[in-house]
Specification:
- The complex is a heterodimer of chains A (223) and B (376).
- Chain A is α+β, with helices and mostly antiparallel strands and 223 residues long.
- In chain A, helix 3 runs parallel beside helix 5 (108-119).
- Chain A starts with 18 loop residues before the first helix and ends in a 6-residue tail after the last strand.
- Chain A contains five helices and twelve strands.
- Chain A is globular.
- Chain B is mostly beta strands.
- Chain B folds into three domains: 2-17 and 150-297, 3-Layer(bba) Sandwich (Glucose Oxidase, domain 1); 50-121, OB fold (Dihydrolipoamide Acetyltransferase, E2P) (Beta Barrel); 318-375, SH3 type barrels (Roll).
- Chain B contains six helices and 31 strands.
- Chain B has helices at 55-59, 200-208, 221-227, 259-267, 292-297, 304-310, and strands at 2-6, 9-20, 25-27, 34-35, 40-46, 50-54, 77-78, 83-87, 96-99, 104-109, 115-120, 123-128, 133-139, 144-155, 158-160, 163-170, 177-178, 190-193, 197-198, 213-219, 245-252, 272-276, 281-285, 313-317, 323-326, 335-341, 346-347, 353-354, 356-361, 365-369, 373-375.
- In chain B, strands 2, 4, 13, 14, 15, 16, 18, 20, 21, 22 and 23 form an eleven-stranded mixed sheet that branches. In chain B, strands 24-1-31-25-26-29-30 form a seven-stranded mixed sheet, with no helix packed on it. Chain B has a four-stranded antiparallel sheet with strand order 6-11-10-7.
- The radius of gyration of chain B is 27 Å and the shape is elongated.
- The chains are: A alpha+beta (223), B mainly beta (376).
- The interface between A and B is medium-sized, with 33 and 37 residues.
Chain lengths: 223, 376
């Protein structure tokens, strides 16, 4: 049988994903039966491309849940240095996105948000170093495309003031922002009134930039 | 550009089919013998079950006493309506006549409980060859005969259920929903065809009606999972059986049975066919006696089945005029001919750039990416 390549090749347990978990990522989710059939047809015909925006939204929702279901295992239990995961290097704090995924989801930004939702949104942070992650597009040549910053708000009314180059930004609790940062390395200066980044209220750090830039995710599911 | 070519139909191929007795019996065949569909190649006696009758309760006596009122010995035959037990009128109780509820053999009377077990009379079942062919193997202990024969073979997408056989019956058109009302006891031992979707209620009705097999276009994923061990893994590795064999030819959800497969099946309406649900294969034996010439002249390799599974899906050149079938979730299962092949990529509404094909189906012309079609 010929090898069929698709967005979900890396996952052999797609059929075990609960349909309701997929539906929560979709604004106007189709009914459960339609969603389950869509997923089943993706397993049966993995090579097919999404035709409409709605198809892409469904594919990204499935991808989020597939990544969550195959997320990093507990390091202490597995004894693995990298956490047994090909998409998230916990030790080096890297998000690894296979470049072949762009064939099925051409928007790299949408793809990165899907990875952030799957891996970082509900992740228990062990230390403040987990406030900063690097995003790498993997393939024949790996390419760093940006960074993810996860500010720690101590209060819902907190505001983060951030300066990159000559531009200043105000980030509030619950918001998402992308700051362009086309250089390999970018310096950011920040000041937090109710919260911390990398264990500090105020500091200047250098982060990886790239063609996408700096993703700031100020959501916190636990608050 | 290349696209995947899926083998869906193989016409007039020489292959092996198994014919198996339903129970222990006798095979009336020898190696190398030529057979015709009507030839009886074996026969067996099949017991159709038993019935328990509480005789002591029916006679209003103690379990230990029940035996003395029996009018037949244990081990004897009795027919429906004949007197099974009789008790005369006593001082405190009335006369009791117990009539046999069915044909059977009195198997055993339990003197502790007063229960009488009546085995239904076994029925003789003859095994017809059902195909034109040559006997290649005989397995007497298992009552199995391998016959080299000529069939047309249909490869479904997936399915469930063991090897079953029966008369093909097209009960609805290829794009109808197969409903419970269409299935009755008259469909017992048949293989039903048709429809774009089969629901679990219809499958339950089919099992109750004694249907052997179902061939259809689509099924809901939840219903299929319930039949196939709770997983969606293709090709399926588990052997499941729920009492009926099902072959799904297109995919999940409402998907009309492909015109190519439906057309072939129509020619076999009312004919004997074999269906292997777990491997999603339908064998349609040739009903023309002149196929014997080809059957006798072609020698088959020993591992023939494995070779054929490898050939189901291959990359193939796409040419204008080629027949394709749309796969996936949009325009699912539509079939048509390629009218044009784009030389430059088009950005789809989803944002994905793709080379498109113009496909003319019976109803309309559609533009569809290479990746979403299979050559047929």
């Amino acid at each position: 049988m010929s090898v069929l390549t698709g967005l979900f090749d890396s996952f052999d347990n797609l059929d075990q994903i609960a349909v309701l978990d997929i539906a929560r990522w979709i604004k106007h989710a189709p009914n459960e039966v339609v969603l389950e059939n869509y997923l089943a047809n993706k397993i049966l015909y993995p090579q097919t491309l999404p035709l409409t925006k709605e198809d892409t939204e469904l594919d990204l929702a499935i991808l989020r849940e597939a990544l969550r279901a195959n997320g990093p295992k507990n390091l202490a239990k597995t004894g693995s240095f990298l956490g047994d995961n090909t998409f998230l290097n916990v030790t080096l704090r890297k998000i690894l996105i296979p470049s072949r995924f762009l064939r099925f989801v051409p928007s790299l930004t949408a793809l990165i948000w899907a990875f952030i939702d799957a891996f970082l949104l509900e992740r228990e942070r062990k230390d403040f170093f987990e406030d900063l992650w690097t995003i790498t597009l993997t393939g024949e040549i790996d390419e760093v495309v940006g960074s993810v910053l996860l500010p720690q708000f101590s209060d819902r009314n907190g505001v983060l003031e951030l300066t990159q180059g000559s531009q200043s930004y105000k980030i509030r609790f619950g918001s998402l922002m992308i700051i362009p940062c086309p250089l390999n390395r970018c310096q950011i200066v920040y000041k937090f009134n109710k919260g911390k980044i990398l264990g500090k209220q105020e500091s200047a750090v250098e982060v990886y930039g790239g063609r996408i830039g700096l993703f700031i995710d100020a959501r916190d599911k636990k608050k | 550009m290349k696209a995947l070519k899926r083998l869906r139909i193989e016409k007039d191929i020489v292959t092996r089919v198994h014919r198996t007795l339903k129970a222990r019996g006798q095979l009336n065949i020898s190696l190398g013998q030529e057979v015709a569909p009507d030839d009886i190649i074996g026969s067996c006696w099949v017991s159709s079950g038993f019935r328990i009758l509480n005789l002591s309760q029916a006679l209003s006596v103690s379990p230990a006493e029940a035996k003395k009122y029996l009018r037949r010995e244990i081990g004897q035959k009795i027919y429906k309506g004949e007197l099974l037990a009789f008790k005369e009128q006593g001082f405190l109780s009335g006369k009791k006549n117990i009539i046999s509820p069915s044909d059977g053999i009195l198997e055993y009377l339990n003197e502790q409980t007063g229960e009488l077990k009546i085995n239904f009379l076994p029925q003789k079942i003859d095994l017809p060859a059902a195909v034109y062919g040559v006997v290649e193997e005989i397995d007497v202990p298992h009552g199995d005969i391998v016959i080299k024969t000529e069939v047309s073979r249909i490869y479904g997408m997936f399915g469930t259920g063991k090897n079953r056989e029966g008369t093909l019956n097209m009960i609805c058109s290829r794009d109808e929903l197969m409903g419970e009302l269409k299935i009755t006891a008259e469909n017992s031992d048949q293989i039903l065809v048709g429809g774009s979707l089969i629901r679990k209620e219809v499958i339950s009705q089919a099992i109750s009606s004694g249907v052997c097999g179902i061939i259809t276009g689509g099924i809901n994923a939840g219903d299929y999972k319930a039949m196939a061990g709770g997983r969606l893994i293709f090709p399926k590795r588990l052997e499941n059986d729920i009492g009926v064999s099902v072959v799904i030819c297109e995919g999940f959800g409402v998907q009309s049975l492909g015109e190519d497969i439906y057309g072939v099946l129509q020619k076999y309406n009312g004919k004997f066919v074999l269906l292997d649900g777990n491997h999603a294969i339908i064998n349609l034996p040739s009903f023309e006696s002149n196929c014997m010439r080809r059957v006798k002249s072609i020698a088959l390799p020993k591992q023939q089945d494995a070779v054929m599974e490898d050939n189901v899906l291959k990359l193939h050149d796409t040419n204008i005029g080629s027949m394709v079938r749309v796969v996936g979730n949009s325009y699912a299962a539509e079939q048509g001919r390629i009218l044009a092949v784009d030389k430059i990529e088009t950005v789809l509404p989803s944002g994905v750039p793709a080379f498109l094909l113009t496909v003319e189906t019976k109803r309309r012309k559609i533009k569809i990416p290479y990746d979403n079609v299979e050559l047929i």
